Amino acid sequence: MRRWQWSLLLVVFWLVAGANFGCTREHRADTLTVPNLPRPVARERALVTTAGQSTDGLITAKILERLSISYEFRSRVTAEDLTSRFQSLIVTVGVASTGLRAAGLTEEEERVRVVELLREARSRGMAVVVVYLGGANRRGRFTDDLLSLAVPYADYLVAVREGDRDHLISELAETYGVYITLTKDIEGVRMPLGSAFR
Questions:
Q1: Could you tell me which of 130, 129, 152, 132 has the C-alpha nearest to residue 140?
Q2: Exposure b/e, 61-74, CB count within 10 A at least 16 = b
Q3: How many domains does the structure of the chain reveal?
Q4: Separation of alpha carbons 176 and 172, rounded Å
Q5: Which residue range forms the structural domain that includes residue 89?
Q6: pLDDT tens string 145-185
Q7: Considering the domain boundaries, does residue 45 fall inside one?
Q8: CA–CA separation, 86 and 71 (whole Å)
Q9: Does residue 4 form part of some domain?
Q10: Which of 11, 21, 114, 169 is deepest in the core (most CB within 10 A)?
Q11: Considering only CA atoms, which of 138, 143, 169, 145 is closest in space to residue 156?
Q12: Is residue 179 part of a domain?
C-alpha cells in the first residue's frame, strides 16, 4: 500500500472512531435520562430540606404530601438531625438571599451545612434525591455551586427542563452517573418524584 493510502486510511479510521465515541457519549446521556425511575431508590420516611433556603423545599414537601409519602420538612436540617427516623433525604436546590438572611446563614455556612448533611446521609446509607424546580433565570453562581455540590451524592435527580437550558444539570448527572428526569414544569415533578419511592 502506498504512503498516501495509509494516510487516508488512518484519517478515515479516526473519523469513524470519533463518530462512534460521540455516539457512545450521547447514548450514555440518553440512558441516564428517564421519564421516571423503573424501580424505587428511596424509602419513607423522607427528610426534606432546601439547599439555598428558598421556598422550593416547601413546594417539594407539598408534592410529597399529595403523593401520600411520609416526610418531614426542615429548612435548616443539619447532619446531626439525620436519625434512624429517616430513610431518605430530599434536597431541593434553590437560592433565596432573603431566606439565607432570615436563617442567619452566609453562603459559606450554607455550603458547609449542605455538604456535611449529604456526607452524613451517604455514610448512613440513606437514599438522596436532588430536586431543582427553578427556571434558567433563577440559576446564579451560588445555585450552580450548590447543584455541583449536591449532584455527586444523588441517587436520583429531578429538574424542571427550563432550568437546564445550558445543560449544566444534565451534564452533572452524566458526569456522576446519576439518573435524571427533566420535566416540563413543576407539576410534572410529581410522577418522577413518586417513582423514587414506589
A1: 132
A2: bebbeebebebebe
A3: 1
A4: 6
A5: 33-195
A6: 999 999 999 999 999 999 999 999 999 999 999 999 999 99
A7: yes
A8: 8
A9: no
A10: 169
A11: 169
A12: yes
> In this structure, what CATH number is given to the domain that contains residue 110?
3.40.1190.20
Predicted TM-score (pTM) of the model is: 0.83
- Span 102-136, pLDDT tens digits: 999 999 999 999 999 999 999 999 999 999 999 88
Look-up: residue for cell 419513607?
44
What backbone phi and psi angles, to 5 degrees, belong to 11?
-65, -45
Q: Which residue type is seen at 188?
A: G
Residue 23 belongs to what H/E stretch?
Answer: helix 3-32
CB within 8 Å of 87: residues ≥ 6 apart: 42, 43, 44, 45, 46, 126, 127
Beta bridge partner(s), residue 93: 51, 132
- Residue 7: pLDDT band by 50, 70, 90 thresholds? very low
**Nearest CA to 124 among 176, 156, 82, 85?**
82
Q: Is residue 22 part of a domain?
A: no
Q: Confidence class of residue 32 from pLDDT cuts 50, 70 and 90?
A: confident
Q: What's the rounded Cα separation, in Å, for the pair 177 and 157? A: 11
